[in-house]
Structures are given as structure tokens and as C-alpha cells.
Amino acid sequence: MAEMKFEQALNRLEEIVASLEQGETELEEALKLFEEGIGLIRACDKQLKEAEQKLEQLKSEGDEV
Known about the structure:
The protein is built from 2 helices and no strands. By secondary structure, it is an all-alpha fold. Helix 1 (6-22) packs antiparallel against helix 2 (27-64).
């Protein structure tokens, strides 16, 4: 999966959750959606951790000034 922007991934994840909550998806498709959702969660988590590291770096650089 090509890396999406955080907001795009979050929007897609919301679509997946809504689809699964309806309960009308066949098992095979539900499993595919669930798998895609897990991938999106991991991608979002990675992006959040990278942003947090950058903020910490900027903060410590600001403290040095």
C-alpha cells in the first residue's frame, strides 16, 4: 500500500468502520476490510510517532536557544 497522508488514511478507516458496523458485508469482504483497516491503523500510528519525534526534536532545539 502506498503511504497515504494521515487524514486520507483516517478518512478511509472511518469508511471501513462504518461499512463493517452496518453488518451487511459478506464475510470474505469483511475480512479484507478488516485487514485494510489494520494496515491503516499501523500507518497512522507510524506517522503519529514520527510527528511526535519531530516535535520533541524541535522542542529540544528550542530549549537550547
